[in-house]
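Researcher: I'm preparing a figure for a lab meeting and need a structural model of a single chain. I don't have an experimental structure, so a prediction will have to do for now. The sequence is pasted below. Please return the structure as tokens so I can convert it later.
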Amino acid sequence: MASIAVLLANDFEDSEYTVPVERLRAKGHDVTVLSAEPSGRLTGKRDGTKVEIDDAASKHHAAEFAALLIPGGYSPDQLRLSDEAVRLTREFVDANKPVAAVCHGPQLLISAGVVEGRQMTSWPSVRIDLENAGARWVDREVVEDGPFITSRKPDDLEAFSEALIARLGGDA
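Model: Understood. Here is the structure written out token by token.
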């Protein structure tokens, strides 16, 4: 099956990591957690979910993976300060590989400069940021445009996960 990169930092929205990752692993996909740091343990903001970092984003390229997952919470805001996380995100888009971002995840896409002209959704507070970066924001459970799969919030995670799995060529 496919190898999926997850960009993650502390204070991620727990379910926005656990639900899609559990669904991906249940379908046989390999998940690699990348962060600004090469190792350590990250903690979710709501439920205190603990996730081990597999490696630093700086050591990897989009060519190694089939897709990128960006969970929300405060994690994307921290990752957008990492030149390497931004570089890796841009590589996925440039390679036209699936990039799945939920809730605040599109903040990292904005910093990568890849949202202009795209239709997307997000947590409502990110709407103005997306629009200012040139995206067309819509209020829907899942929005797919080019390589992007975006969703608004934890309530959308089943549809979000199904869309990512379908894009990878598997049954949701």
